Amino acid sequence: MKRYDLIVAGAGPAGLSAAAEAAKCGMRVAVFDENAKPGGQLFKQIHKFFGSKAHKAKIRGFNIGSELLAEAERLGVEVFLNAPVLGLYDGREILVRIGDETRHYKGDSIIVATGASENMLAFPGWTLPGVMGAGAAQTMMNINRVRPGSRVLMLGSGNVGLVVGFQLLQAGCEVVAVADAAPRVGGYGVHAAKLARCGVPFYLSHTIVRAEGSDCVTGVTIGEVDSGWSVIPGTEKHFDADTICIAVGLSSATGLLKTAGCEMEDKGPFGRLPVCDEYGQTSITGIYACGDVSGIEEASSAMIEGRISGAAAANYLGFLPDAALKARAGELEQALEALREGMFAPKNRGKIPDKTDEGFDVSMSLLTRGYLDDAEVAGYPGVRSAAGTHPVIECTQNIPCNPCQDACPKGCITVGENIVALPQIDAGAECIGCGLCVASCSGQAIFLVNEDIGGGLASVTIPYEFLPAPKPGDTGVCLGRDGKPVCPGEVLEFKSPPAFDKTGLLTVAVPQAFCGRARFWKREA
Q: What's the whole-number mean pLDDT along residues 71-99?
C-alpha cells in the first residue's frame, strides 16, 4: 500500500489549490480524480472571473486551471487521472480504481474536494435526447467543441444558467428564452444583461410544462406558476427548440465523507453537509473538506478554501508551525470574506434588498426582466454625460469585483477598498479611450461613449466576443438593453490586442440620440 503525507480526492479548483498549498510546505501529495483531465470545472469556464487581483479576477477560468496545474506540477504533486476514489475508510485509507485494478492508498491526511453534481428536474419528456444539464452543454461546447443544439431553452437564471446561456450564443446557438420558476433573476445582473441585450427574453415565474417530441426534443412548453409553484392554466407558451438545458442548482458530492463516517448536518435546501471547523477539518481528525463539497459557492471561493485546508493539513502533520498557519489562514480568510459580501453573499441568500449599499434603488427591471430599464440607468454612479470619449459603467449591484479600477491607467474609475462597492467615475480624470476598462470588466458592463463625433453621430464602444469579427464599414442594427432594435450602426473600428485577452472592442457610429441606448450590434441579415 503506497503512502502519502496528503491525499486529495478531486482535481478541481479546490483540490488543486489544496494540493499546491500543502506541497509548498514540503508535503508529499497525491491527487486522484475520476476525469480524464484535471482542473474540474475550470477548463469549461471560458468567461473571466470576478473578484479582485487576489481572486484571479478578469482571468478566464481555463487559464486559471492551467496556472493551478503548472503550480502543482512544479511543486511535485502527483496527479492520477481516470482514477475514481471508490471509498474512504478508517485509518485514512482510500480505495481507487485505476484501469482494471483496484488499489489501496494511505494518507496521513486526507482532503476531500469532490465538488458537486447538477440537479435535474423531472417533467413530461425530460428523458428525451436533447434534455441535458447546463454543465453537460458547457462540456460539449468548451471541451469537446460540439454544439449541443441549434435552438435552446435554458431553465434556470442563476449564474450557471446565465453564463452557459451566453456561451451557447457564442457557440452559434439560438437561445430562445431563459425561464425560471423564481420571480427574480437568481444570478448576477450583469450576466443577465449580456443575454438580454443579445435579444434573449426572460420568463420569470415560469417553469417547463413539457418537452415535446417522440425520439428527441422538437419543442418545449412553459407556463407561469402561482405562489404554490403550480402552473396557471392558460399561461402556456410554446417554443420550437431542439435542446433544453437545465440549470436548477447543484448538490454537494458528499458520498466519500458519509462513508468515512464524518458528522453531517442538515443545511435545509443545501442538503446534508459535513460539519467542519474554520480550517475545513471534519469531525474526523486529519480529514478535511473544501470547495463545493462543503457548500456551494463560486470557484474563486473554492480555491481559497482549498488553500486554507492545504495549510491546515500541513500544520496537522508538523510541516507548518501554528503561527505560520494562523498568519496564512488569516490572509486567506480575509480574501474569502471579500467574496462573501454584497447582495449575493451567503448571508443574504433569499433576500432582495431595495437599495444598494450606497443607497441607490435596486433595479427591479433587471431582477424581473433581465435588463436595466432605460429610465433607470442614469441613476447610478458609473453613468454620466461628458464631452469626448468617456466610460459608462452599467454595474448596478453590489457584487465582488474591481478589475476596472486597476485597469484604468488614468484613475477614471474608483471602486475603493470594498470590492463590492459600485464603480464610480472620477469627473476630474481624463479618459484616453484605451478601452482597458471595457476589456477587463468580467460582466461586460462597461462601454465607451463619445456623444458627438460630428455629422449628427456619436460612437459607442461595446465588448464583443463573437465570431466572425466585424470589420470597419460593416453595417448592422444596434440593439438596446432589452435586445430590441433601436437604430442602425456602422462599424468604425474593431480591435482585440493580446492585452484584452480575446475581448474585442467594437466601436460603432450611431445617431446621437441613441448613444445612451445602443448596447449591442448585429450584422444586417
A: 96
Give me Rg for the CA atoms of the chain.
24
Residues of the chain with CATH 3.50.50.60: 2-116+250-339, 120-246
DSSP state of 174: E
- Residue tagged 458519509 (cell numbers): 258
Cβ neighbours around 245 below 10 Å, total: 29
CATH label, 2-116+250-339, candidates 3.90.1150.10, 3.50.50.60, 3.40.50.620, 3.30.470.20: 3.50.50.60
Query: What is the rounded distance in angstroms from the CA atom of residue 80 to the CA atom of residue 288?
Result: 20
Round to whole Å and give the CA distance between 210 and 207. 9
How far apart CA 188 and CA 395 sit, in angstroms, is: 10
147-170 confidence digits (pLDDT tens): 999 999 999 999 999 999 999 999
CB atoms within 10 A of CB 56: 21
- 273 φ, ψ (degrees, to nearest 5): -120, 155
Q: Specify whether the CB–CB gap between 211 and 185 falls below 8 A.
A: no
CATH of span 120-246: 3.50.50.60
Cis check for the bond before 129: say yes or no (omega within 30 of 0): no
Q: How many helical (H) and strand (E) elements, i.e. helices and strands, does the chain have?
A: 12, 30
Residue written as cell 458537486?
Answer: 116
